[in-house]
Specification:
heterodimer; A: mainly alpha; 3 helices; globular; B: alpha+beta; five-stranded mixed beta sheet; five-stranded antiparallel beta sheet; 5 helices; 24 strands; 13% helix
């Protein structure tokens, strides 16, 4: 369904974002990460940007992930 | 602000840099100037000096590249990741890469090279990302004019290198915190279904589908606009938003400035003694526009510039809006109710029955 593919696209986009910028381990391409690892990293990102820490890919979080930005990770090395 | 782990920094203050190649988007001289100005931003507040090399290895090697460009840290095409830089150190340490797939500009029309370079060179000197939306080291790109470093940035870089502060430098403002209990608003307006709340040099954007308001620098969206907004309102029938600052007013069609603006507020028939509009609102049900200045307010018929202010105005706010404060910071109109904001209090006022229905904190509309 379109909704499902959008959700899936957002999820894959978010995984790539969190992998590049929050140290989410690289999952198998195309397969969805285990949800607790993903959720932990997502919460780190929401906390950094002072969003509501929901651990879910809500609209505000996806919107912020899509904004043009610097490619240096937000935490750690 | 944040530093990289182990507070990585250059061990001597005289740093060298070299520009290895140039983007075709700008003249070579424009790139040279953007990079030099970006380095000067950091030199202005620290003892650091930057010497340009034209050959050999420099501490900071600057280049433009796209997709995989030699550091196993590929760019992603237009938008998304704009650039990256490495913390101080030997080899790739300090190196700064810009994504050639971006459109690089020297104004606000696309990605301003000076602003991105000032951010990336912050990394090359040891600054990591800041979570303060008003800081240059905030990860998300936003266009701004004037001196780009905020207090937060300056404190961070001086913690690494010590510093000097020029009293002529006015650091970029720190972003207001939406849940500060004493928060007051400068202005509130609707804009095509969203609510825009102005405070200092920032605005929050509230969208019914987005649980969290999004904070942005005013100049990042409206570069032509002055730093602070006094009042704003939308006339949805004309798809216009009117914004007031000092004795001037701007008309926007969406995010674009309408030809012929800014105009002086006195063209509305306001006396010269009025030097600013505190709040403004369009009452959809009556087609009337209300402008609030100090303890009074003015009412206009449908078309603002017919110079016809309704007879018998200005009138006293206290008399016509009993139960309200006698001054207003901002006002909005939703479904028959007026929402007046004064300092940290929000008054929900029934326009029909002329009375205050509810009192809340100003920032309750920001999910606080």
């Amino acid at each position: 369904l379109p909704l499902q593919s959008t959700e899936k696209d957002n999820r894959l986009f978010a995984e790539k974002y969190l992998h590049r910028l929050y140290g989410l381990p690289a999952g198998l391409q195309g397969r969805l990460q285990k949800s607790d690892t993903f959720q932990t990293k997502l919460k780190e990102m929401q906390k950094f940007f002072k969003l509501k820490v929901t651990g879910t890919l809500d609209d505000s979080t996806v919107e912020l992930m899509k904004q043009a930005r610097c490619g240096v990770p937000d935490i750690g090395e | 602000y944040n530093h990289f782990p182990r507070h990585l920094k250059w061990q001597n203050n005289n740093i060298t840099f070299r520009i290895l190649n140039y983007t075709p988007d700008l003249k070579k001289a424009d790139v040279d100037r953007a990079i030099r100005n970006a380095l000067n931003v950091w030199a202005d507040v620290t003892p650091l000096t930057f010497k340009k090399l034209h050959e050999g290895i420099a501490d900071i090697m600057i280049s433009f590249g796209s997709r995989e460009h030699g550091d196993y840290n590929p760019f992603d095409g237009p938008n998304g990741l704009l650039a990256h830089a490495y913390p101080p150190g030997a080899g790739i340490g300090g190196d700064t890469h810009f994504d050639e797939d971006e459109q690089w500009t020297k104004d606000s029309s696309a990605y301003n090279l000076f602003i991105v370079a000032a951010h990336e060179l912050g990394h090359a000197l040891g600054m990591s990302h800041s979570s303060d939306a008003g800081a240059l080291m905030y990860p998300v790109y936003s266009y701004t004019t004037g001196f780009p470093l905020s207090e937060d940035d300056i404190e961070g870089i001086q913690a690494l290198y010590g510093g000097k502060i020029h009293d002529l430098l006015k650091p970029r403002p720190v972003a207001p915190s939406k849940c500060d209990p004493d928060l007051s608003f400068d202005a509130v307006t609707e804009l095509r279904g969203e609510t825009i709340v102005f405070k200092d040099s920032f605005y929050w954007r509230l969208h019914p589908q987005m649980p969290e308001p999004e904070q942005t620098l005013i100049k990042s969206t409206w570069p032509f606009f002055p730093k602070k907004v006094d009042a704003a309102y939308e006339n949805p029938e004309k798809d216009r938003v009117y914004m007031f600052s000092g004795i001037k007013m701007w008309a926007l069609n969406g995010y674009d400035l309408v030809d012929g603006y800014p105009k002086y507020i006195h063209k509305l028939g306001l006396p010269k003694s009025v030097r600013k509009v505190d709040a403004a609102v369009y009452i959809k049900d009556t087609g009337k526009t209300l402008l609030f200045t100090d303890e009074e307010y003015w009412r206009y018929a449908k078309r603002l510039f017919t110079r016809t202010m309704d007879r018998g105005y200005p009138r006293s706010i206290e008399e016509d809006f009993p139960g309200m404060d006698d001054e207003v910071d901002a006002v909005a109109y939703h479904y028959g109710q007026l929402y007046f904001f004064h300092e940290h209090i929000q008054y929900e006022y029934s326009y029909a029955s002329r009375k205050v229905l509810r009192i809340q904190r100003t920032n309750s509309i920001l999910n606080c």
